[in-house]
Amino acid sequence: MSELSVVVLVSGNGSNLQVLIDHANAGTLPIVIRAVVSNEPDAYSLVRAGKAGIPSHVVDNRSFDSPREFCRALAECVDHYDPGLVVLAGFMRILHPEFVAHYRNRLINLHPSLLPKYPGLHTHRRALEHGDRVHGASVHFVTDELDAGPVIIQGRVEVEAPDTPETLQRKVQAVEHRILPTAVLWIAQQRLSVQGGQVLLDGAVDPEQGLSPGRDPMSGPKTVTA
Predict the structure, then answer these.
(1) How does strand 134-141 pair with strand 107-111?
(2) Domain boundaries, the chain
C-alpha cells in the first residue's frame, strides 16, 4: 500500500496532530505528514511539527482583508504539498466554500460532539446544559455547511453527574485520539465512499452504529465507545 500524503491544519495545542505523528512513526498509519499549517503563530502544534521534522507554516487569518483571501492563501500553501488528504485537527476557522470545493472528498474535520448535535463552539458546556447522558466526538467530511458533512466515525463517552466542561473535554479528547487515526486509516486504505450524503465503509452502512469498549476501532465499525 502506498503512503497517503497528508497536510494537517491546526490552531492550538495539537494533541490530535501528535497522535497522527506517533502512528505514522510507528508504522500503524500508512501516511506521510507533508506539512502542518496553522493560522495561529504561537500554536504549540508548530512546535510538535518541528520536533518531528515536519515542515510547518503560518497563514495568519488576521493578515487578510477577508475570509476568501485568507482561504486562497491557505490553499496555495497546502497545494504546495499536493496532499491526498487534508485534516482539520483543531483548526478554528470557518473555511470559504471555494476552499471546501477545492478539496472536496479529501478534507476531513474532527468535531467534539456527536453530530448532528452541537455544531460550532462550546460543545461540552451545551451537552451538560441539555442533560445529555452520552456525548462524544465525530470525524466527518467537510462541506459548505458548518459541521454538517457526512460522518465517517464517532466516539462516545458517558456523561456523569460530577462532570464539568473541563472533565468532559478530557474524556472526549481520549476518544478523539482513537477515532481520528481510524478515519485516516480507512481513507488511506481506500475503504470509504460517499453515496447520498452518507459514508459507506467497505461499500456498506454499519447497521448497528455500535462498538464494544474492548474492540479495536481500527477495524470498524463506525462508532467507538470509550
Answers:
(1) antiparallel
(2) 1-103, 111-135+153-226
State the cell numbers at 161.
453527574
Pairing of strands 107-111, 85-88: parallel
Q: Which residues are catalytic?
A: 111
**CATH code 3.40.50.620 for 111-135+153-226:** no
pLDDT tens string, the chain, 226 residues long: the values are 689 999 999 999 999 999 999 999 999 999 999 999 999 999 999 999 999 999 999 999 999 999 999 999 999 999 999 999 999 999 999 999 999 999 999 999 999 999 999 999 999 999 999 999 999 999 999 999 999 999 999 999 999 999 999 999 999 999 999 999 999 999 999 999 999 999 999 999 865 443 333 345 454 445 666 5
CA–CA separation, 82 and 102 (whole Å): 12
Helix (H) or strand (E) holding 56: strand 56-58
Residues in the chain: 226
User: E strand or H helix at 21, and its extent?
Assistant: helix 15-26
Range 1-103 has CATH code 3.40.50.170: yes
Residues facing 195 on adjacent strands: 198
Q: Residue 198 region, left (φ>0) first, then alpha (ψ -120 to 50), else beta? A: beta
